[in-house]
Amino acid sequence: MDFIRIKNARKQYKNGVTAIQDVSLSIEKGEFVFIIGTTGCGKSTLIKMLYREEKPTSGNIIVGGIDVAKLRNSKVYKLRRKIGVVFQDYKLLNKETVYENVAFALEIFGAPKSEIHEKVVKVLDLVGLKHKAKQFPTQLSGGEQQRVAIARAIVNGPKLLICDEPTGNLDEITSMEIMKVLDEINKLGTTIVMVTHDNDIVRKMQKRVVLLDSGRVVKDYEKGSYNNESI
Amino acid sequence: MKAFRILSRNIRDSFKSVFRNFSLSLASISCITITLIVVALSIVLSYNVNNFATLVEKDVTVVAFIKLETTNEEVTQVENDIRRLNNIESVTFKSKGDISKEMMDSSDTFKNVMADWTDADSPIQDTYLIKVKDIKNIKQTANDIKNITNIESVKYGEGMVEQLVTVFETIKKVSIAAVVALIIVTAFLISNTIKITIFSRKREIQIMRLVGASNINIKIPFIFEGLFLGILGSIIPIIATVYGYTSFYENFDGKVFSSFIELIKPEPFIYMISGVLLGIGILVGMFGSYRAVRKHLKI
């Protein structure tokens, strides 16, 4: 069953630049998909449309049954509660502890304290940071900060995890550690869409790979069929 | 239960946030403090000017002189006729005997001259001292009194009173307009300061949006934070008003420049101003935060 269905999506910015041109794509529930391509090919715009940071100029984008193009600004939160997003720059609150950063995503819904505690501890354990719960983001390494960001993104149990170059700031070893964590989350049933520049990671992971060029899908490699592509 | 949890979390977080972002909070608090002190000063000044104007207006008296040959019954009839008019606050009778006595008591010259006067040859007339309800209509009222039978003439300081009324009316209007304008300017000044401080927390708002907080979820903690900033910012102006005005009043014994200008008594005046300052602080703090956050919620 398709979790994400993109049909003839097009995105033109106000300055006239067309970032996405006639993209159609389906992603099934539980899939792990890499979106790759050169800088400026429209990767980031495509995933921004998935979590409604950007609106398509035309075409349809259905995420978990929600028509993103028709979603009003005031209702965006309904979509965001179904998905988790991880960024290259982690986007953590540096004045809050690791625990508080993760708990934040649950507190805004008014979850009971006991439930918050249980879920936060569980998810910190999953990303291997249970022992650093009381530390502040600035006291952690880049890889650890990214794991906190992942923990925050999945603590709500989202059906979809969107990752925008999550390993962009990390070294090779740390990057692979992050990928392991993401792979585990994927195995638990979460659909993952990840934008990356890192060819090594894409090659090693052997997942489905969508190659974009000038805002169009030029190749769609099935799981395990990707060998190499200069990006 | 869920709503209560969300509300208590919002209050706790906003309180925490005031202290976690202390340098930014301090900027907003200082701005609120300074502007509220100016507002307090202008309220004290305009209320005292208004109070003085009202006191002076209340003091203005119309004197109606009764014809010399009028009988006692006719004098009583004159009083009834005056009371029947609109705009009459009080009517006091002052007989020619009372006036003569007052004059003779006030100076020896008068005493010598007036000592031999009899009721028949005294040129002094019986009078009615009349206070009006609305000083703006004093001219009309004076004319009406003048038309009453057995009234010879009416005096109330024509020309001067009208000028005084115009000046006081202008002062009242200008001072109210100044206070209102100052409050509006304060609101925008504080709102802009909070806007700048919230701009630096754009990231926080972005993250809140990202994890699925609805717009109202995002706004409420900031609005509460504005409320706390407003309360904290009004503390110093309130203390300054309460102690400052009381000691000013006591120092000058309730009168400034001359015994003619009386100050408003500190109680309950200072409490009223304190309430107004707290109210402005809270409303402006909340409004400022609301306005600032709203800007970041548009996609």
Looking at how many chains there are and whether they match, the oligomeric state comes to: heterodimer
**How many distinct domains of chain B?**
2
| Mean pLDDT across all amino acids of chain B | 82
Strand content of chain B: 5-15%
Radius of gyration of chain B: 31 Å
What does this structure look like?
The complex is a heterodimer of chains A (231) and B (299). Chain A has 231 residues and is an alpha/beta fold. Chain A has a domain at 2-44 and 57-82 and 158-221: P-loop containing nucleotide triphosphate hydrolases (Rossmann fold), CATH 3.40.50.300. Chain A contains seven helices and ten strands. Chain A has helices spanning 43-50, 76-80, 98-107, 113-126, 142-154, 172-187, 199-205; strands at 2-12, 18-28, 32-37, 58-63, 66-67, 83-87, 160-164, 191-195, 208-213, 216-221. A six-stranded mixed beta sheet of chain A has the order 6-7-8-3-9-10, with helices on both faces. In chain A, strands 2-1-4-5 form a four-stranded antiparallel beta sheet, covered by helices on one side. In chain A, helix 6 (172-187) links the parallel strand 7 and strand 8 (191-195). In chain A, helix 3 packs parallel to helix 5 and helix 5 runs parallel beside helix 6. Chain A is globular. The mean pLDDT of chain A is 90. With 299 residues, chain B is of the alpha+beta class. Chain B folds into two domains: 2-56 and 163-296, no CATH class; 61-155, 2-Layer Sandwich (Alpha-Beta Plaits), CATH 3.30.70. Chain B contains ten helices and six strands; from the N terminus they run H-H-E-H-E-H-H-E-H-E-H-H-H-E-E-H. Chain B has helices spanning 2-20, 22-59, 72-84, 96-106, 108-114, 138-146, 160-199, 202-210, 215-251, 266-296, and strands at residues 61-66, 88-94, 127-132, 151-155, 255-256, 261-262. In chain B, the strands form two sheets. Chain B has a four-stranded antiparallel beta sheet. In chain B, helix 1 packs across helix 2 (22-59), helix 2 (22-59) crosses helix 9 (215-251) and helix 4 (96-106) crosses helix 5 (108-114). In chain B, 27% of the residues are buried. Classes of the chains: A alpha/beta (231), B alpha+beta (299). At the A-B interface, helix 2 and helix 3 of A face helix 1 and helix 8 of B.
